[in-house]
Design a protein that fits this description.
Radius of gyration: 22 Å
Largest sheet: 7 strands, mixed
Strand order of the largest sheet: 5-4-3-6-7-9-8
Bound molecules: S-adenosylmethionine
Strand content: 15-25%
Shape: globular
Number of strands: 9
Structural class: alpha/beta
Number of helices: 14
Distance between the termini: 60 Å
Helix content: 40-55%
Length: 352
């Protein structure tokens, strides 16, 4: 055996980093749920005792949490005073729920996904699927908190204007179906931006639809937004000007069947906007930190979700543009293009 010491050290560093990161996901979620980050952001430099008092927690736990967070670079420590604080960048990513770079939702998703590991070990053997609705409920809330800031930053400002003539129609008054809408973050954002249009959000998961209705009530857009339990292959209505699928087409068992149904519900001049995780066509071109996140989420969430439904095509979260075009055109659409993109998302437009 001839181990290369440098490569071995590199591998060990990688492992230690990820070992710490795996624990760290739990600590981020604890800090988020107990308001420790927000307490630090609001109160400035604090000892663990001061932060514990402010957040109604126990000093001994907060002290240990603070040290772990400082070791991970998520919280800063002033060793001369023993006080912890957040830099501007730490506060922007950890304490500001509306920041486009808010991170705790992502960790909430990852932690919730790990709860499915025992079942997925079995699924790897049997090939069975696991529906989105069967996961720990934290997944649904984490997904909403993780995705919403990105939608708030890009959807109305960039993605809709990148579609063919859709922005003008939305301003005048259009009919929109948001399919696989989850907690309705995208639906509500569109309804707030285009008050003359009407929106209906569909999802097969009843619990998500109930939360989406509550979100629409809180946002005061119930006059133009409706949410209904329905599947992508048979949701009701026809003549929609815009149908949207946010981060869900690849989760479906029969995306070709969904495409066929979207086509039958869209007006002749309408557009189907498909938002998918950013991906290149070839696996070797996705081997980077973002690809790792998406392939991992795809293994634990998206692939089992698709395998749990009819057909079980299991596109995966890194299908890439070529594969997506195949799926969408197999459903009967004649025009398909990449309308725009961000480092995290590809935004496709399909037209009849
Ligand atoms: C990753 S989540 C995205 C949720 C939401 N669009 C968002 O961006 O926050 C995928 C969603 O697709 C829904 N879904 C999966 N298969 C579906 C199907 N066949 N018909 C309708 N909804 C489906 C799930 O219930 C889940 O809410």
């Amino acid at each position: 055996m001839s181990l290369n010491q440098d490569k071995l050290n590199e591998m060990l560093h990688r492992g230690i980093n990820d070992f710490g990161a795996t624990f760290h996901a739990a600590l981020v979620t604890i800090g988020d749920k107990l308001g420790l980050y927000k307490g630090l952001a609001a109160g400035g430099p604090q000892t663990p005792a001061e932060l514990a008092k402010r957040t109604g927690t126990t000093e001994r736990y907060v002290r240990e949490w603070g040290a772990a967070q400082a070791a991970g670079g998520y919280v800063s420590l002033d060793p001369s005073t023993g006080r912890y604080f957040l830099s501007e960048e730490q506060a922007f990513t950890l304490a500001d729920e509306n920041s486009p770079a808010f991170l705790p939702g992502a960790f909430q998703v990852a932690l919730a996904a790990t709860k499915a590991v025992p079942r997925l070990i079995e699924a790897f053997r049997t090939g069975e699927g696991m529906g989105w609705h069967e996961h720990d409920h934290e997944l649904f809330h984490g997904t909403e908190r993780f995705f919403r800031p990105g939608y708030a930053a890009h959807l109305v400002a960039e993605w809709i204007p990148a579609l063919t003539g859709i922005e003008a129609r939305l301003k005048q008054g259009a009919r929109v179906a948001d399919v696989g809408c989850g907690h309705g973050a995208s639906t509500v954002l569109m309804a707030q931006a285009y008050p003359k249009s009407t929106f209906v959000g569909f999802d097969y998961h009843d619990g998500s639809i109930q939360t989406a209705r509550a979100r629409a009530r809180e946002a005061g857009v119930m006059d133009r937004v409706d949410f209904e339990v329905a599947r992508a292959k048979d949701y009701p209505g026809t003549g929609y000007d815009l149908v949207t699928f946010f981060d869900c087409l690849h989760d479906m068992g029969d995306p070709v069947g969904a495409s066929r149904h979207v086509l039958s519900t869209l007006s002749r001049e309408g557009s189907w906007m498909i938002v998918e995780p950013f991906a290149n066509d070839r696996v070797e071109d996705n081997l980077n930190p973002i690809g790792r996140v998406f392939y991992s989420a795809s293994t634990l969430l998206c692939t089992p979700a698709s395998l749990s439904q009819e057909v079980g095509l299991a596109l995966g979260a890194q299908a890439g543009e070529k594969r997506m075009k195949d799926v969408v055109t197999s459903g009967g659409f004649t025009r398909f293009r990449r309308a725009t993109e961000t480092p995290f998302n590809l935004i496709y437009e399909a037209r009849p």
